Amino acid sequence: MKFLSLEKEAFGLDISDLSLKIIKLKKKKHSFSVASFNQIPIAPGIIERGVIKNEDALVKIIQAACKKVKGKKLTTKYVVASLPEERSFLQVIQMPIMKEEELILAVPFEAENYIPLPMSEVYLDFQVIQPIENHLNHLDVLLVAMPKKIVNAYAVCLKKAGLVPLVFEIESEAITRALIKDEISNAPVALIDLGTNGTDFIIFAGRSIQFTHSIPISLLQITEAIAQALHVDFKKAEKIKINYNLKNPNTGQNSKKILQAIVPILDNLAAQIKKYLDFYQDHAFHEHLGANQKIAKIFLCGGGANFKGLPEFLSNKLGVTVEIKDFWADFSLRTSNSDIDKNFLSFATALGLALREINEVP
Fold first, then answer.
1. Domain ranges of the chain
2. Burial class of residue 136, CB neighbours in 10 A (0-12, 13-18, 19+)
């Protein structure tokens, strides 16, 4: 959703319910470096399931995060900002082959069949998906829509914070840019972004996202389950979670209690993922992907990817290879700061936003 063309130097700003992340990249010939970054918490209640409840509080957080970035001081007010996945509508549709000017007029009418809100209440964007192979007798078109009241609220907060939004982008679009090299995949790939307040499930195939869904299972629930099982406060439970290893759990009473507390949550996560994998596999057919129809790999990102043993746990439950994607290496991205290095998996969305800016600047 463009508000202005990307002719200005900008940074990526990822705003979620419980955290805010910033990344500003600097291009160096064939590689990138992180010029500026920050990550600060957002208190519960300021944003709830993507809806801003306290604009003034969010404005102060944005201003503080920009002012106190690590690395080089931010000297630009232009930003590429995220929009909440759980409030978005994304759908791949097929349209007859037609000219671009005809498509611009036709897509909004077709979109009414897929978006459960009046067109007057949403911002609608679309792009034609170019096939990898074979010339099709139709156009695959990716629809993306977001309620105007949601977008407008984020725009107001950014403006009050002294920033200018060049582009708003749904989280899944930014994540795929960070995790899918060159934004192209000959076979369908699933992406799981397990965060503090929820999980985004994404399937990417060819040159586009094909399916997304928000799963209401989070790292917060895992920490709370540990706290309850061991009768400890949240801060201590968080430390226990960080050190716990699902693959090689320590023996002892506490380890057994932890396992009994968190396995039902992770089993539920695996069941939800399998449900959507099966749904996609049963309903999707990409004529332009040839025989490569099966999802054979899942990439894990977000803070949950740091949960030791989780890839192996999910691989065993799903019968599909689950691995952590070192997306920094794909972009020859380097940073000398240990804070971002040890938490790089949680910066996927912010990195994707920053990459959009740096890739499109002339």
1. 10-360
2. middle
Q: What number of other Cβ atoms are within 10 A of residue 183's Cβ? A: 18
**Could you give the angle at which helices 55-67 and 148-160 cross, rounded to 10 degrees?**
50
What are φ and ψ of residue 274, in 5° steps?
Answer: -65, -40
Q: Write the pLDDT tens digit of every residue in 163-191.
A: 999 999 999 999 999 999 888 888 889 99
C-alpha 118/C-alpha 198 separation (Å) is 27
Indicate the CATH number of 10-360 among 3.30.420.40, 1.10.1040.10, 1.25.40.10, 3.30.360.10: 3.30.420.40
Rounded CA gap, 348 and 334, in Å?
14
pLDDT at residue 110 above 50?
Answer: yes
* pLDDT > 70 fraction of the chain, expressed in percent and rounded: 88
Query: How distant is the alpha carbon of residue 153 from its chain centre?
Result: 20
pTM recorded for the entire structure: 0.87
Structure tokens of 31? 């590689």
Which of 72, 63, 62, 70 has its CA nearest to residue 15? Answer: 62
Spatial distance between the Cα atoms of 8 and 325, rounded to a whole number of angstroms:
30
